[in-house]
Amino acid sequence: MTKIYTKLFGFLEIGDDFPTIIMSVINLSPESFYQGSVYHNSKTLKKATMSMIKNGAKILDIGARSTAPWSKKISVQEEINRIIPAMENVCDIISDNIIISVDTQYREVAKKAYEISQTYKKKILINDVSCLKTDPSLIEFVCEENIPIILMASKEIPGDLLTIGEIIKELEKTITLLKDKGYDEKNIILDPGIGKWIQNKEPKYDIAIIDNLEELRELNRPILIAISRKSFIGSILEIPEPEKRLNGTLATTAIAVYNGAHIVRTHDVTPQLTEIIKMAKAIRGSKR
C-alpha cells in the first residue's frame, strides 16, 4: 500500500507515519449551528486560541460564514468584516509553526486573509467546502499564490454527494483541474464532506462514508475528517442539542482516525481528545 505523505510549508508533516493533526475551529459566525463554538470578542478569541494550541492544535480554522444549509446568508463583505479583525488578533499571538486555515468559498475573502497573513508573516491555507464550485475565480487565486487548499467533496453545492464513489469521482475532477493549471497537488488535502448538507443526506450516508474512508486513499492525498458535533451524531444518539454531542463526537473521531483520517477538524481541543486520537492512531498503526 502506497504511503500517504505531504509536508506543508516545509515543516508540518502529514501522513500515515505521522501523528494525526488537530485542526481547531475558530467560529466567528453567530448563525452557527453550535453556539458554544462562537467567539464574540477578541479577548475570548485570544484565550481560546492559546488553549487550542496548548492542547495540540497545529491548524486553526477561522470561519465567519455558517455553512449549514438553513442558516441565514451573509454577504461577502460581511464575511470579510468578521474575518479581518480575527485574523489580525490570531496572527498577533501565534508562533510561526501554527498554520491558519481560512474557511471560505470566495476569492475576495481569501485574498484579504492572505494579505493579512503576509503582513504578519504567517502561514495560511484555504478550506473550501464547495470544492471550488461556488466562486471559480478562487481557483486562479490559489494557483497564482500556490496556497495549500482543503477540498471538501461537492458537485454543485457544498456537500451534495452521498456515496464514497461519488465523492472520489468529484474530488478527482477538481484535483485534475488544479494540476492542469500547474498547481502543486502536494498542497491538496481532501475532506469527504460529512454532515447534512442537503435534505436527503441521512445519517446512514455519513456512517457509510466513515466506514469506507480507506477508499479515499486511491487519490493519494491526506484525508481530513470534519465530524465535530454534527447532526448525524445527534440523530443516532437522539440528542438534538449540539452542546450534548461530545461523547458521540469522540467515539466517531476514534473510528475515523482508525480508518485513516490524517487530520481531525474539531470544536473541542482537549487532552481527552488528543489521547483518544493517539490511541486510535496507534491501533491503526499496529495493523500495518
Give a short synopsis of this structure:
The chain is an alpha/beta fold and 288 residues long. 41% of the residues lie in helices and 17% in strands. It has a single domain (19-287), classed as Dihydropteroate synthase-like (TIM Barrel).
Q: In one word, what is the shape? A: globular
Return the CATH architecture: Alpha-Beta Barrel
- The spatial strand order of the largest sheet comes to 8-7-6-5-4-3-10-9
Strand proportion: 15-25%
What is the average per-residue confidence, as pLDDT, rounded to a whole number? Answer: 94
Please report the number of helical segments: 9
The main β sheet shows up as: 8 strands, parallel
Low-confidence residue ranges: none
Q: Please write the CATH class name.
A: Alpha Beta
Rg computed from alpha carbons, rounded to a whole number of angstroms: 17 Å
Sheet/helix structural class: alpha/beta
**Count of DSSP E strands?**
10
> What's the CATH topology name?
TIM Barrel
CATH superfamily: Dihydropteroate synthase-like
What is the quaternary state of this protein? single chain
- Give, in order, the helices and strands: EEEHEHEHEHEHEHEHHEH
End-to-end separation: 9 Å
Number of domains: 1
Q: Which percent bin holds the helix content?
A: 40-55%
